[in-house]
Design goal:
The complex is a heterodimer. Chain A is built from no helices and eleven strands. By secondary structure, chain A is an all-beta fold. Helix content of chain A is 0%, strand content 56%.
Chain lengths: 109, 114
Amino acid sequence: TQLLEQSPQFLSIQEGENLTVYCNSSSVFSSLQWYRQEPGEGPVLLVTVVTGGEVKKLKRLTFQFGDARKDSSLHITAAQPGDTGLYLCAGAKGNQFYFGTGTSLTVIP
Amino acid sequence: DVKVTQSSRYLVKRTGEKVFLECVQDMDHENMFWYRQDPGLGLRLIYFSYDVKMKEKGDIPEGYSVSREKKERFSLILESASTNQTSMYLCASSRGRLSGNTIYFGEGSWLTVV
């Protein structure tokens, strides 16, 4: 069930640029996760946010959970080729998880 | 470290064969899930389990069954494989709590049915 809309779907940028990926819903989630997935591999967890308004940083990646716990953003500063991959958001409601369709990021050296 | 292990990374099976995909987690998680991932369709839930011997249908259960005889192991079964079941299969697990929940994935199993 597609409760989460992720945008943009595709993104191609030059090394050193900044970017933001959005994950939006009309539903409230108890937590939200971001993953990065490389071709042929399973999604790898980057972060879990739980509290409305929460901001977490992971090196050059900044994650924010919306105040109402319905949306989230991922901001990457000074993107590098190693950031290339598929970024997925997932929201938890009860014991169920709902996934965005993903953002495919390509960082060109 | 959190670990979800899928027994087979790459499989090639013939149409009509019975296929078993095995998954083991070492985190004592109550919940386990099987998804398939296809280009343009994202992740789709096949089956999930909240406890040993319990199973619930997801969004696309047709053509699949599951088994959970032990807490740490969740198996996906294709009774008679068909070419439209060629896909990447992902096993995942999570704790059985309602807040702050996180889902962890295995490395994926690429299944090709010829």
